[in-house]
Design goal:
Length: about 675
């Protein structure tokens, strides 16, 4: 904001400064001085008196007839002279005095106006003297803004400098001088301490020299504290997670870019850790968002303390911690190689094992995994490193190599490939290019087919069909699997709707990924879908792998119970490979056990497999579960399974998965 420089008259305040420059002020500037008034009066008096003295004697001498008359005329002349000059003096002095008092009145009005203007603007107006920028005038509202009286600044020439915030002090005086030298004016923002010594206020200072080369500056200080506070709140919010007070992904990215440069310059190590809370979204769903928040805050606090206490960080104070969203945290360790980071991660996980979050009646235990990435040998920016750390976390979650995974350069190519697959999956989802195939499941006691397994394929733009083994693992790793499952389920329900009452015996077995264990959205979604399609829930069987169900038995039970309430049934898929087996059969409300194909494929040649399949069938039946054998590829295997009293068989020998229209299905083909 630029304002016309203002300076009050001498009587407007403690200012001893220059004459005001308003129009009224300029009029006051035209007031004749005492000496010029005196000179004018004297000159007029001298002219009139001189003329009288010169000419009156001649006139009187001409008129006088005698000496007596001369004496009389001279006496008269003297008297007239005194009266006339007195009248003249009176007129002159009165005229000038009247003009003077008019000017003084106008000056008073203009002075009052200036004072009013100064007091009514919220900004502080000032004058300062170079070279030390000493304040020579400042408007009275400085008291409201900073707690000082204007006189305090006049009395103490160093006051303004002393009140400058330490972080601004050197910068401000140097910049003001530089800008004044450059262009005779300056604009600068800085903080001034309040007299209370506790608070500071931000000001924007706009000043300029009275004239080129002058030593006096006029200026305006505008209080910009509110704007600065809003700016800093915005800055904080864009870089921090409001829940934990830690940096967020954006904030850590900014800092990491700097740390990368430092590490490369110093030629020292740097590593980045990505810690993910196990099944965080499920904890959130199961215990509610408040409990989820509580978990995040506790884990954030724990990690902060752990990093502070750790050898790695105490040696290097530059470790930073951030919450990356969801249940993931990021830590960047400067001067620390991947070995140091791994040691820290293992210690942190061990400690986290002992952290229990009390939420109402619940005591929630927290498990986590960590992905680690070191400083890339060639290039690599913050975005790349953070995404590699996330990929390492995915690997820690998916792999069998323990809860800590260190990213390896060879994984980079793999990840790039996976990213391309991910794009193809998203495109197929958006354009609804997934297609369903159906594989018959034969009921051995009745030798009839009433149920089919639904197997998804991805159709590429050129028409080729991609098998699920190519894209399901990537979809699972990158969290797209639930979108696929929902779309498949939607298509399966639509298939049953179009089938109508033609084949009421047909049931579809749909594969459900492990991510749905704890998915609280599924129940309501499914209920609405079934209702709007007028399809009975009893026509759906969900296949969920044994490993996924056993990983979180409690949540798996909740999911199964809730969907069973709609009439749906459950099959435990790939049974036998998890070796966690039998005891869980009792705990889980499943109707069918699907023995994994790897035990069936060689059944005719492997005595071990035969023993195992027989044992599984016996135990399952003891728990009143029906048994399905998959991957039945020949007649011999089929005969063995009939002997073991397996209930259902599925495999290429019975029928390959095929795209089947409801009409064909209705025709019984
Ligand atoms: P799965 O659930 O164990 O499905 C059985 C797989 O074995 C299917 O492979 C099927 O084509 C194949 N198969 C059936 N009979 C035979 C046989 O006699 N011999 C041999 N060698 N293989 C046989 P597919 O269709 O490639 O599916 C592979 C896996 O992909 C499935 O294993 C399942 O885990 C997953 N998947 C398929 N569709 C979906 C889906 O809609 N959602 C989810 N989440 N996963 C799915
Ligand atoms: Ca299956
Ligand atoms: Ca299976």
């Amino acid at each position: 904001m630029t304002q016309p420089p203002l300076t009050p008259s001498a009587s407007a305040g403690p200012c001893t400064g220059p004459v005001p420059r308003t129009p009224e002020a300029r009029a006051v500037a035209g007031v004749p001085t005492g000496r010029s008034v005196a000179a004018r009066i004297t000159a007029i008096y001298a002219a009139v008196a001189g003329a009288w003295i010169l000419f009156s004697d001649w006139i009187l001498t001409d008129l006088a007839r005698s000496v007596h008359q001369v004496t009389l005329f001279q006496a008269l002349n003297g008297a007239v002279f005194v009266v006339a000059t007195s009248a003249l003096l009176y007129a002159l002095v009165r005229g000038y005095a009247g003009r003077l008092s008019g000017l003084v009145a106008r000056a008073r009005i203009s002075e009052a106006c200036v004072r009013h203007v100064i007091e009514s603007v919220p900004d502080l107006l000032y004058t300062r003297e170079l070279p030390d920028l000493r304040v020579t005038f400042i408007s009275p509202n400085v008291t409201a803004a900073l707690g000082f009286e204007p006189e305090d600044f006049m009395d103490d020439p160093r006051l303004w400098r002393d009140q400058l915030h330490e972080a601004d002090r050197d910068r401000v005086t140097a910049e003001i001088r530089e800008q004044l030298e450059d262009k005779g004016a300056f604009t600068i923002e800085y903080r001034l301490w309040h007299r209370d010594g506790v608070t500071t206020r931000w000001f924007c200072d706009n000043g300029r020299l009275e004239a080129a080369g002058a030593s006096r500056c006029f200026g305006v200080l505008t209080d910009i504290t509110d704007r600065k506070e809003t700016e800093s709140t915005l800055h904080y919010l864009t870089n921090h997670d409001p829940l934990t007070g830690l940096l967020n992904q954006h904030g850590v990215g900014l800092i990491l870019d700097n740390l990368l440069q430092i590490a490369r310059r110093r030629n020292t190590g740097l590593s980045c850790l990505c810690l993910g809370i196990d099944r965080f979204s499920h904890l959130n769903d199961a215990f509610g968002h408040k409990a989820g928040d509580e978990i995040l805050v506790r884990v954030g606090q724990y990690l902060r303390e752990e990093l502070r206490a750790s050898d790695v960080i105490s040696r290097v104070p530059d470790g930073i911690l951030a919450r990356a969203g969801g249940g993931r945290f990021l830590a960047v360790l400067l001067d620390t190689g991947v070995d140091g980071a791994r040691a820290l991660a293992e210690r942190a996980l061990e400690g986290l094992d002992r952290v229990v979050v009390h939420y109402g009646e619940d005591r929630i235990r927290i498990g986590a995994r960590v992905g680690i990435v070191g400083l890339p040998a060639h290039g690599g920016d913050a975005v790349q490193i953070l995404s590699q750390a996330e990929n390492a976390l995915h690997r820690a979650r998916g792999g069998a190599g323990g809860p800590v995974h260190v990213y390896d350069a060879s994984e980079e190519r793999e990840d790039a490939l996976a990213a391309r697959w991910l794009d193809r999956i998203h495109a197929a989802l958006d354009k609804r290019r997934f297609v369903l195939h159906f594989q018959p499941i034969l009921h051995l006691p009745t030798w009839s087919v009433h149920h089919y397994e639904v197997l998804v394929r991805m159709r590429e733009p050129d028409g080729t069909l991609v098998p699920p083994t190519r894209f399901i693992p990537i979809a699972e790793r990158f969290g797209v699997i639930d979108r696929i499952d929902y779309q498949v389920l939607e298509m399966a329900i639509d298939y049953l709707r179009r089938l109508g009452g033609a084949r009421p015996d047909i049931r579809l077995a749909v594969n459900l990924s492990g991510v749905h264990v704890g998915d609280t959205r599924l129940l309501a979604w499914l209920r609405t879908r079934l209702e709007s399609a007028a399809v009975d829930g009893a026509r759906l069987i969900f296949e969920i792998t044994e490993t996924a169900a056993v990983e979180d038995l409690q949540q798996a039970r909740i999911l199964m119970d809730s969907l069973r309430a709609l009439g749906c049934r459950f099959a435990l898929d790939d049974f036998g490979i998890g070796f966690t087996s039998f005891i869980h059969l009792r705990a889980l409300p499943v109707d069918l056990i699907k023995i994994d194909g790897s035990f069936i494929r060689n059944l005719d040649t492997s005595a071990e497999d035969r023993a195992l399949v027989q044992a599984i069938t016996k135990v399952a039946k003891a728990y009143h579960k029906e048994v399905v054998a998959e991957c039945v590829e020949n007649e011999r295997i089929l005969a063995l399974l009939r002997r073991y009293e397996v209930d259902y068989v599925q495999g290429f020998h019975i029928g390959r998965p095929v795209a089947m229209s409801p009409e064909r299905a209705a025709g019984g083909q």
